[in-house]
Write a structure and sequence with these properties.
This protein is of the alpha/beta class. The protein is 22% helix and 40% strand.
Length: 127
């Protein structure tokens, strides 16, 4: 994982913890796997899927009974992200506050990450 030893790669707000636990219990799942894929008008999109087990290279983050797995190809792009769950009048959704995002589309569904070289340089400077 791209990170700092002893520091969680992502943080999960209490609202997100409650929602993830609720989903895990309702569907009897091991956890929620987060990744990124090409798509959307800004170039990349987050993915979220239920999983029944961790893959060998997944980063597993457990917090207060909620389990989030980070896909290997997404680990560098998600380091430092806060995962939240917001409920509004018309929609409820997971929100990602990601310091690695350089730009996002107007609808908020797709993102553009900083260049890989820039992310690696930031990681080197931190640790």
């Amino acid at each position: 994982m791209f990170g700092i030893p002893g520091q969680s790669p992502v943080t999960i707000t209490p609202a997100a913890v409650r929602q993830i636990r609720k989903l895990m219990e309702r569907d009897n799942r091991f956890g929620l796997k987060i990744g990124v894929k090409k798509g959307g008008c800004a170039g990349m999109e987050y993915t979220m899927d239920y999983v029944d087990a961790a893959d060998t290279n997944d980063e597993v983050v457990e917090q207060d009974g909620a389990r989030v797995l980070i896909a290997p190809m997404a680990q560098m792009f998600l380091f430092g992200t806060e995962i939240d769950y917001e409920t509004a009048l018309l929609e409820s959704a997971f929100k990602f506050r990601n310091p690695n995002v350089a730009d996002a589309c107007g609808c908020g569904e797709s993102i553009k990450f900083k260049d890989v070289e820039e992310l690696a340089a930031e990681q080197d400077a931190q640790g």
